[in-house]
UniProtKB/TrEMBL annotation:
<keyword id="KW-0004">4Fe-4S</keyword>
<feature type="domain" description="4Fe-4S">
    <location>
        <begin position="14"/>
        <end position="73"/>
    </location>
</feature>
<feature type="region of interest" description="Disordered">
    <location>
        <begin position="171"/>
        <end position="201"/>
    </location>
</feature>
<dbReference type="InterPro" id="IPR050294">
    <property type="entry name" value="RnfB_subfamily"/>
</dbReference>
<dbReference type="InterPro" id="IPR017900">
    <property type="entry name" value="4Fe4S_Fe_S_CS"/>
</dbReference>
<keyword id="KW-0249">Electron transport</keyword>
<keyword id="KW-1278">Translocase</keyword>
<dbReference type="InterPro" id="IPR010207">
    <property type="entry name" value="Elect_transpt_cplx_RnfB/RsxB"/>
</dbReference>
<keyword id="KW-0677">Repeat</keyword>
<keyword id="KW-0479">Metal-binding</keyword>
<keyword id="KW-1003">Cell membrane</keyword>
<keyword id="KW-0997">Cell inner membrane</keyword>
<dbReference type="InterPro" id="IPR007202">
    <property type="entry name" value="4Fe-4S_dom"/>
</dbReference>
<dbReference type="InterPro" id="IPR017896">
    <property type="entry name" value="4Fe4S_Fe-S-bd"/>
</dbReference>
<keyword id="KW-0472">Membrane</keyword>
<feature type="domain" description="4Fe-4S ferredoxin-type">
    <location>
        <begin position="119"/>
        <end position="148"/>
    </location>
</feature>
<keyword id="KW-0408">Iron</keyword>
Amino acid sequence: MTNLSVSNPSLTSTEQSLIHQIDELLPQTQCEKCEYKGCFAYAKAIVTESAPINRCPPGGDAVIASLSQLLNTPIIALNSALGEYKPPQVVRIEEDFCIGCMKCIIACPVEAIVGARRLMHTVIKEECTGCELCIPPCPLNCIVIEPLNPQLGEASIGLSDWEKTRAAKSRMRFNAKKSRENARNNITDTQPPQEKALADPVSKSSMLDLINLARKEFNEK
């Protein structure tokens, strides 16, 4: 699946190709530990901003080595200020404590969490990247990290075959979510002001005010 962010007239075809090649080497956890908004954004920053190749904790030394090989640059140590390397992991919601606030669902970059407001949420283990982005928003701290312990092999350069398969699936889900978000934003941006006001999220108090106003108008008829 082509990344939605690649169409940029300011980039040459060579730069765009290189960004794709770098993105293919990244683990696609979309964790933002590199301080960019996802793996593709980091790949783009490496090409356009000369971002260092050592900013991916989930990739660790193996990904640094593969980036060094691709870009013909020296291998450098992982930037530990951004986090330490961890083997592949997933998260699990302690469902007995979940209040259905949906904060984790909104935070998940690959839509690996399912549930509805005020109902129990659960993680789709096969889709979770272990990015940990769902943990800080959880008001009850009921999301825990669990190791996956897959057979990664002995490769010291680049992702294992298992990780490549996982990364491809995560990239597809991340891009699909971004595509839907962009579509919603485009629809909202082109709406007349009165429709846009109705489409925008409102606070609970504002919603109650609207309900009370509707009741008042109904009673006055």
